[in-house]
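G.,

No rush on this.
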Amino acid sequence: MRKSGILFHIACLPNDYGIGTMGKEAYEFVDYLKECGQSIWQILPLSPTSFGDSPYQSFSIFAGNPYFISLEALEEEGLLKREEYGEIKWREDERYIDYGTIYENIYIVLKKAYLRFIENDDMKEMLRRFSEDNPWVHEYALFMALKTVHGGRPWNEWDEPLRMRDENALRAAREQYAEEIDFQKFMQFKFSEQWERLKAYANKNGIQIIGDIPIYCAYDSCDVWCEPQLFELDENRVPVVVAGFPPDCFSADGQLWGNPIYNWQRMKEENFDWWVKRIAYAKKLYDIVRIDHFIGFERYYAIPYGDTTARNGKWRQGPSYELFSEMIRRTGKGNIIAEDLGIVTPAVRRLLKKTGYPGMKVLQFAFDPEGKSEYMPQNYSSRNCAVYTSTHDSDTVAGWVRHNKRGDNRFCREYLNVRKNSDIPHAMIRLAWQSTADIAMTTIQEMCGYGSEARINVPSTIGSNWRWRAVRSDFSAENADMLRRLTEICNRKEK
């Protein structure tokens, strides 16, 4: 069935508490999706954020972000009092997330909920069962407890016994920091509980959720600390090479992401168990999984650790279909989207075809006056793809238009059959919906016609990313009517 939906991260939801949560605002957004006639809600990674507040740089591939726990829901359970969180000034501007204020306050508030929680034996038993069912939470909770007692410093700056995971040191830490470890488990339990309820509500209302998983782990993560043998680290567990992207027309120095690179040979020897577990978990968490930077599985760019640019990196061969063959055999073939943007070589195309995964098309890349771009709908070779008006890493359509050359916008208006640049965002949505692609996606920013001020992320920059939020007036009935009717006439709504 042809489907369509909206890409909109939970953090961007409007409320009075500084950042979007899995509270009533999330349920209201599901209702809005239904009002818009949509069947998909795509979000960004749910993981706890680390450096730069990016959901693609996380402390864990399995854990959920405590920032997304609804404090109002905890109050309804009797675990919080309104004055314990309602009187905090969570933000200066309702349009932007103040991560510093959230970090300084959220754990104090959640600790109060935890202390009430552990007074109830039935609740403590639920936490015990959750920990049994999710064995990853034990190491994650220890990792985060150690980060807390080390003032947030990364694990590679801890004393050597803990940094190198000496068993005696770990055993002593588990005893010494038992309460903090249980607090970390409590936050994961509440996150999981609230997420499962929200997802069930979305599914009940005919909405599938596309979740996003990054290809790489952050160096300062539980994943690298716990299983260093799966990454290219030296004997002191310092990266040998890190990930990035080579210089191109957008960046003379390339992109230096800094993530440690996998030891693919070791992973192969272990039958890719780590990746199989990761995908299996993601498929339980979401209805559809988007794998970021799919081309990195065919070949990846390795930069010497310590370099300040990506200029000296080298391309290396990735695991290619060997990995996906094992993943498909053990987790099933469907419900995955491959983010295949970037340098798409013939080998990448062959890998995508062999897996059967739909790739991505971004319409902002389509407007080649010669009409030869593979992102132009008339050039789609298969319906098995997902088309986007924009993504979290690109500008909004209105911002993109504003930065285009005059001639490029002239061609864009001509192609879309509109007279004004301000008409382009909605015309781009129409083009995506009318395309042959099985999945069509847009954003709230496009529906509202917002410019670069509403952009989510500028790759390879830090300081102002991941901060934009919607306000309640952005979810207008007029836009809902427009999208619902477009979805009907383009046959993207189940009859």
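When you get to it, here's the other one too:
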Amino acid sequence: MARWIAGLDGCRGAWAGVLLDLDDPERHRSALFARVADCLDAPEAPVSVGIDVPIGLPDRVSGGGRTADRAARAYLGSHGRASVFPVPPRAAIYAEDYAAAKALSRAGSAPPFAPSIQCFNIFPYIRDADRLLRERPDLLTRLHEVHPEIAFRRLNGGRPLAAGKKGPQRQAGLAERRALLTAAGLPTALVASAGPRGVGADDHLDAIAGLVVARDHLLGTATPLPDPPEQDAHGLPVVIWMPAAPA
């Protein structure tokens, strides 16, 4: 029986997805999914999915955000910690507009803070995952929060990557990430593939990084941040999963 795994990364109002048959790695495909559920309910029915979105939302925020976010920033250090934004309170995530989100975030945080407009723009992705897991808690064993920069750094032996995935070093940064994914044991054809139309190369590779974490979580070799994981008031896990350390 095939064991499919998947990685998801938010992209242009949808989800850039990558699926792989763990028992026959030459079988894989990339796709755009309108909702998280569309990936989980796809014909492959992936048993483990790494998704780049916060899962487990605080009712109130203190001390710089969720424990998982603080642990992630500590792991990344000065190289990349800015990529881990503080997750606002759940009420702010469900606000109708940016002004309301800022007000609700300040009211539910100590010290008070407001999400950036970039953070606000990913709220629909957060709501998609949050609603799904609260409506279908059976999916908690299949859907796991990841952070691509943490995944790539872990695959690089805990060292910062030499080049970024955007800006003037973009091509070098993408090549470095592809090399790490190949070294992690993924099929060369998958790593070298282009994503679906409209999906940037960086988003495609981030989805593949999520797939690596999904694989290691299924195999029991992934590492949680924090350890042990926490839960929010609705029983959703508050944890960012890292792939296994390279040999």
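The mean pLDDT is 95. The two ends are 29 Å apart (CA to CA).

Enjoy the weekend,
O.
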